[in-house]
Amino acid sequence: MKQRPGFILLQTILICLLFSVSSQASTPTHGPDFTGAKTLQDSVQILRKHYRSRSTAEKIASFPGRLIYIPLRYTTKTLSWTVAYVDETRLIQRVEDIITSEDGLKGLEPTYASRTGAGITAYWKKFATPQSEVNMTVSAGQFFRQRYRIQAEDIELLRSKLLLDLSLNYHMYPNERFYGVGANSEKSGLSLYSIEQSKFSGAFSFQINKYSKLGIKPEYEVSNVMESPDTAHPTMVEMYTNIPGMTVKSKLVSVGFELGVDTRDHPGRTTSGKTMDISYGFYKNLGDTRYNFQKANIDLTHTQHIIHRRTLVLRIAGEMTREYDNGTIPFYYLSELGSTETIRGFERGRLRDRDMMLVSAEYRYPVWRNWERAGADFFLFMDAGQVSHDLYSSKGLLENSSFFKDFRQGFGFGLRVWNEDDLLFRTMAGWSKDGWRLYLTLN
Q1: Number of CB atoms found within 10 A of residue 215's CB
Q2: I need a surface site. Which of 94, 274, 332, 342 has the fewest CB within 10 A?
Q3: Per-residue confidence of the chain (443 residues) as pLDDT tens digits?
Q4: CA distance 255 to 339
């Protein structure tokens, strides 16, 4: 009977697998004798017999390597099976059909972030102009964390050259962590606080060309810092004194200027391109406090295709915060390092000071692809950075002997899943001197 091509391919893979396992376990001087093997099945039997006939010493010697390989092997298999099952059953498409309108302009999508918790976003595309979108997000997490956001984006004015964004945000984050100010703050300095913020902003942006956008963003906010309800750890007031922003309600108005450049070939499955975000803003107090300060930020990334859709993503970022008009900076507006956006492996806000510098490298390679429609990439990363009171002065950069000594590092790995529009899901594990941390982001 004529064998199907798929069955022959399966047999060939089995032979290669047995060769691979045999070569990992030991490297024999003479390979198996295939004399007389008339079919693929005979070859498999010979290989199996040869593999099982290894000496006891060879089995003992190969055991540590096989033991280390087991978790990686079954993790990869489980991931492949899961992705293949979701794709074959069209599970995501079925759910999307239920929660999305027929024209795809209105719908719901779940969201999750480590800080804000789980939630849902309702969106309406092209509600006013062809590019515009309005969406509302509601999310909640542990310790009664809450976040509510309504925003309208890319409302086209003046024949699409001028875009308007409007945003209204409210969040309440109990049990936020504070470790002190400065590069030498230690994990033992942990204290807790709660913060409640309401923000309203309206941003005007001008589309310079296909890749660049220039904008101005006025914003008004009310912030209220309170003691944490958690009694298992000391509060911020108990651990620290004279930190601007503790247990104080403040009102701030700010105006920011932003320049964004994005030449990536795709926001989710990026294989080449660059991004550049430069911003400057000044903040003025409207209440009894003297929170008058300014912030400047630059963030550059470069994605380089290596081979077979494997990419290397390099990033460098810096931030500087300064007082003006005899003002002060509330601690929650200091530059900070920690969490998924900076050094993965540290708590959010683990390091804080007026200035910050960050460098990062991430190597990505595909583990599953469904042509251009969707895919999953595994990645390895390394982050490093530091905070300082005066990093970008000549003294901070040139005369500070501990410039590189104060750099903190984070290493780890993760998985990112994307579709034809954007990045959908990302999970990762990061390690630093503080230990391991797990991160999960959805939409």
Answers
A1: 19
A2: 94
A3: 444 444 444 444 444 444 444 444 444 444 445 444 444 445 445 544 554 455 666 556 556 656 655 665 666 666 666 666 666 666 556 665 666 767 778 888 889 988 889 999 999 988 888 888 999 999 998 888 999 999 999 888 877 778 999 999 999 999 999 999 998 899 999 999 999 999 999 999 998 888 999 999 999 999 999 988 888 888 898 899 889 988 788 999 999 999 999 999 988 888 899 999 999 999 999 877 789 999 999 999 999 999 888 999 999 999 999 999 889 999 999 999 988 889 999 999 899 999 999 999 999 988 887 766 788 899 999 999 999 998 887 665 555 556 677 789 999 999 999 887 788 889 999 999 999 999 999 87
A4: 26
Query: Helices (DSSP H) in 330-426: which residue ranges?
Result: 394
Burial class (CB in 10 A: 0-12, 13-18, 19+), 308: exposed
Burial of 16 from C-beta contacts in 10 A (0-12 / 13-18 / 19+): exposed
Whole-angstrom Cα distance, residue 164 to residue 216?
10
**Amino acid of residue 324:** Y
Structure tokens at 360: 């990062």
CA distance 320 to 297: 7
CA neighbor of 248 nearest in space, from 219, 284, 285, 289: 289
* Whole-number Å distance between alpha carbons of 214 and 204: 8
Q: Output the CA–CA distances (angstroms, integers) from residue 54 to 32, 63, 240, in the order listed.
A: 11, 13, 66
Structure tokens at 179: 């470790």
User: Which DSSP category does 398 fall into?
Assistant: I
The architecture in CATH of the region 91-442 reads: Beta Barrel (2.40)
Bridge partners, residue 297, by sequence = 279, 319
At 72, list the tokens: 């990686």
Q: Give the residue from 254, 167, 154, 255 showing the smallest Cα distance to 207.
A: 154
Distance CA 220, CA 251 (A): 8
- In DSSP terms, which residues pair with 107 in a beta bridge? 100, 123
C-alpha closest to that of 355 among 399, 295, 439: 295
Q: Phi/psi of residue 88, each to 5°?
A: -70, -35
Two tokens, residue 180: 């002190």
Phi, psi of 21 (to 5 degrees): -65, -40
C-alpha dihedral, 68 to 69 to 75 to 76, nearest 10°: 150
End-to-end CA distance of the chain: 51
d(CA 205, CA 256): 11
